[in-house]
From TrEMBL:
This is PucR C-terminal helix-turn-helix domain-containing protein. PANTHER family: CARBOHYDRATE DIACID REGULATOR, DNA-BINDING TRANSCRIPTIONAL ACTIVATOR ADER. Residues 122-180 form the PucR C-terminal helix-turn-helix domain. It holds the Pfam family HTH_30. It comes from the Bacteria.
Length: 187
């Protein structure tokens, strides 16, 4: 890391704990740093992974370090040279910290949508509606149905789940629950 700092003519603000090395960089140098680490891993075979936190003022350095550690965990898990915290999907950051009981509690409102083929249509409609940022027109177009049909489906989703698609908090819960269900399928 010190060699890379010298190569890039960066001040060597580096600390090390075990196999974890922290490098503090000016925000405008992150692109060069990312390129150097990627080059070292991909071309030179250096067994390194890098997580990058969001730029912070010096007094908030701990926040950036924690973000970098979360990004590093993803870099290691996905075998990617560099992962930036800002590029991580929020739901992944939230869901990776849930134990199975908490994940089950999160997904419980959506369980009635897993009963049969008819309710699975509602689940898919909900996913599309939320992924289209609650746009009736965009979601109905993507689903190939009329806007009023989508409204009827969302009304049925609300009846079965107790969540309202017109309430932001409920939409967030529904989206995270959908992601947790998908994550459960992948495991």
């Amino acid at each position: 890391m010190l060699e890379w700092c010298a190569e890039l003519d960066l001040p060597p603000l580096v600390s090390s704990e075990s196999s974890l090395v922290t490098v503090l960089l000016p925000e405008d140098e992150l692109g060069r740093w990312t390129a150097r680490v990627s080059d070292a891993v991909e071309r030179e075979g250096v067994p390194a992974r890098c997580g990058i936190g969001s730029p912070q003022p010096p007094v908030s350095g701990l926040l950036s370090r924690r973000q970098a550690e979360q990004a590093l965990a993803v870099a290691v898990a996905d075998a990617r040279p560099v992962v930036e915290f800002a590029g991580l999907p929020t739901q992944r950051l939230i869901l990776q910290h849930l134990d199975p009981a908490a994940r089950a509690a999160l997904t419980s409102p959506l369980l009635p949508l897993l009963d049969n083929d008819a309710t699975l249509v509602l689940l898919r409609s909900l996913r599309v509606f939320l992924s289209e940022n609650s746009s009736w027109e965009a979601a109905s177009s993507q689903l190939g149905i009329h806007r009023h049909t989508l409204r009827q489906r969302m009304a049925r989703v609300e009846e079965l789940t107790g969540l309202s698609v017109s309430v932001t908090e409920d939409r967030v819960i529904a989206w995270l629950a959908l992601q947790a269900l998908q994550l459960g399928d992948a495991q």
